[in-house]
Design goal:
Layout: E1 2-3, H1 5-16, H2 20-40, E2 45-46, H3 48-58, H4 64-73
Parallel strand pairs: 1-2
Helix pairs in contact: 2-3
Length: about 90
C-alpha cells in the first residue's frame, strides 16, 4: 500500500528516534497495522490517522508516554483523531 508522502516522512523520522533495540519491531508492527487500518477505511493510502491509530492500538503500556511524546514531537496530532480513547 502507498503512504501519503508527509505521513511517511514523519513516520520515518519518528522511528529513527526510537531506541535501536525496539526500532525494527516497532516499524514493522506499526506499518503493518497502519496499512490494515487504512484498508479497513477503504482508503488507498496510509495517512496520519492510520499511523496514530496503529500506535495507540499496538504500543505496550510501559512505552505509552514515550509514544505520546514522539507523536507530538514529530507532528502527529493524535488529539485531532480522538486519541487517547482510554486512560492509561
Amino acid at each position: 500500500m502507498i503512504w501519503e508522502a508527509e505521513t511517511e516522512s514523519k513516520f520515518k523520522t519518528l522511528i529513527s528516534k526510537i531506541p535501536v533495540f525496539h526500532r525494527h519491531i516497532t516499524e514493522s508492527v506499526v506499518s503493518r497495522q497502519a496499512e490494515k487500518i487504512a484498508g479497513n477505511r477503504n482508503c488507498s493510502q496510509v495517512e496520519d490517522r492510520d499511523v496514530i491509530a496503529a500506535f495507540f492500538s499496538d504500543v505496550p503500556s510501559p512505552f505509552y508516554s514515550m509514544m505520546v511524546r514522539l507523536l507530538e514531537q514529530n507532528g502527529f496530532d493524535y488529539k485531532k483523531y480522538g486519541f487517547p480513547k482510554e486512560t492509561r
